[in-house]
From TrEMBL:
This is Alpha/beta-hydrolase. The keyword Zinc does not apply. Transmembrane segments: none annotated. The lineage of its organism: Eukaryota, Fungi, Dikarya, Ascomycota, Pezizomycotina. Coiled coil: none annotated.
Amino acid sequence: MEAPRHRQNLIEMAGPGMLYVTMQPQPGLSLDQFHEWYNNEHGPTRLRLPQIFTNGLRYKATDGVEPTFLAVYDITSMSHLETPTYTSLRENRSPREAQTIGQVDVKRSFLDLVSTKASDSFVPIEQLTDEEAEGTVLVAVELTLKDVAGAEEEVTKWNQEEHIPMLSKVPGWLRTRLFQTSSLEGGKRKLVSLHEYAKTNGLGGPEHKASMSTAWREEVFSKCIDQKARRTYSLFYVFGPGPRDLSSLSRLPDSAAFTSADGINSTTPGSSPVITSAIATGDGLTIPYRLEGNPSPSAPTIAFCNSLLTSLHMWDPFVALLKAHRPQFRILRYDFRGRHGIPSPPVPSTLNILSDDISTLLSALRIQRLHALIGVSMGGATTLKFALKFPEKLDRFVTCDFNVASSEANTKAWKERIAVAESTSADGSPGIQTLARQTVERWFHPHTMTEKKDTAEWITQMVASNDVEGFRYGCPALWDYNMKEELKSCKVPGLLVVGDGDGKGALVKAMDGFKDKVGSQGTELKIVPLAGHLPMCESPRDFFDAVQEFL
C-alpha cells in the first residue's frame, strides 16, 4: 500500500540520525542472559546492515538512575528505519529474542542529527580498540521545549553559538552532537545533546561550571525550556557484525544454548563456550567462523587457516590439545571462500583476496592483533601472505606443508583435479568423491593410511563435501603466486613445520631451501614424523609438541 503523500515527503527529506534505546532488565532476567542475547544476536544483526547502521555502542549508567543501559546506533539516513530491511528485524524476532525482550523495559527514540562539533583529537569510537573505547564518557541531555514561538530555534542557536563552544574547552571533551526527536516519531519535539568525553576529563571543573552559568543560558531556560533531563554513562561494549561475547556465554547454563532459524548462528554456553556464525566479505561472500577457548575479551587469539578442500574442523584434534594445555588462548577458525560457495559474480581466489578475508574477519570481530596465525597447505601460503601484508595485525605465524611459489606442473595438476571433481565416475558417483579418495591417498603418510584408517576416512568425507564450483574458483590461488622476493621483508617471527612424508619428502627439501630466507634472520623448520601433508590431523600430538614452545 502506498504511503500518504506527506509521509513520503518526510521519508525523502530524512537525513542522518540515531537510534537511541534505553533498557532496564526486569528483576527476573539474568544480566548474563540479557548481555549475551544483546551482544551475540541483537546488535550484530544490525551491524550486518552497514547501509543503515554505521556503528553500535552500549553504555551503562554512572548516575545511579534507571534505565541502567543505553544503546546507540548511528543511522546513515533516518528514512531507512521505515523500510522492510529494518522493520523486518523486529517482525521476525527469534523465539529467544522475543522471550528476552519481553523481560526488558525498552524505550526507543529516533533522533535527527542537527549539528556536530568535534575536537581535533576525536576518533570515532568504532575505530578505537576495545581497550581505548571502553570507559569513555557520554553525557546525554534531553530538553523538552515550551510551547512558545521560536523556542527550538533559540535553544539551537544558544547551543551552537555559546554552550557547545564553551564545553569544547572542558579538558577531555571529544565531541558534541545536537539532535532533535525525529519527524518519523511524531509527537512533541525535543532537543537531545550528546556530549562525549575521554575517560579522564574535566566534568565538574571550572570550565564545565562556567558553561552552565551564563546570562544567555538563564534566559534560554527561562523562556524556552519546560523540562531538562541529564544522564551520564560509561561505554562498555562496541558492536561489530560478528558475535564474539564468549564471556557472558560462559556464565550461562546449558539450557541457554541458541541456534538461529537459518542455522548460521549458534551459541554453546558453559565452561567451554563456543560461538559459530558468519561474516560477509566486500564482494558479498559469506564466510563461516567458530570462536571458542578462553572467554575473556582480552585473551590472546590464535587463528587457523585450513587447506583447500578441507573445513575448519580439520583442526579439531589439535584444538582439543591446545584448549587443554594452553587455556589462556581464544581460538578462531573459519572456512576458506569456496568451501561453501562463491561470490556473485564469481571471482577466482588469489592469495591477496584470501589474506584480505582474514583481515575482514578480524575487523568484524574487533580483533586488532592476533597472537598467532597457523596455516597449512594453501592456508600456509595464505598465512605467509597475511604476515607480509598485515604485519601490524600479527605477533607470530606457523606455516605448514606449503611452498613459497607455485609451478607450472602444480597448476596443471590442479586443473586436472578440477576436471575430476566436475566429472561423474563410472559407477555414477560424483567426481568430487573420486577426487577426495585420490587427494587423501596423495596427502597422507602410508602409516596413516594403514594404521589410522579412521583419520583417513574422516578427511576423505570432509574433502568430498566441498562445493565443487567453489573448489574450481578456489584453486586459482595456488596457480600463479610467488613470494620469494618478499620473504626477506617479512617482519613477523615465524616457524615452519612439515610432515616428513609430504610429497615423499620433496616438501621437506623445498621448505628447508627457503627457511633461511624468511625475514632478516631466517626461521626454524620442524619435521613431524610419520606424517604427510596434514600433520596436525595425522599426528596431532607430535604437531603440538613441534609448535607449543613457539606459541
